[in-house]
Amino acid sequence: MHFHRPSRAGHDRPMTRRAFVSTTTTAAAAFTLLPRPSVRGADAAEPDHSPCTPIGEPKGIHPGRVVWVHDPHALEWEGPGHGHWYEEDRLHQDRVDAMMQGALAALTGEPDPARAWDRLFRHFNQGHGRGTWAIAPVSGS
After folding, report:
1. What pTM did the predictor assign?
2. Is the model's pLDDT at 94 over the cut of 90?
């Protein structure tokens, strides 16, 4: 196996494996010897990332609320060696729709999907200075 490197005259010549290893080893050693910035004092304090400790500023219709949904039967796929997860007829759209409606209801506190979307978009628009208007529902949804 040969790698090519430009010669001093600008022509390509093969780089041997030994020269490649030597060059990369030297570069790695030089990199480890570079000075590293040190942080001292109050700036060096580690942030608290322990479980159940909020990070950031809570926002949203219910600030800080996080919603998680899961349905192991929404997709039929046994894993590698059994085709691809994205192939036709693997997804059960009705189950995905139910997960989406459940997440939306849990997020907004509104069990009716149309009213939940309305609340979500009205809150978003109001928070972004766009008034209290919502979106028009799409027919068939």
Report:
1. 0.54
2. yes
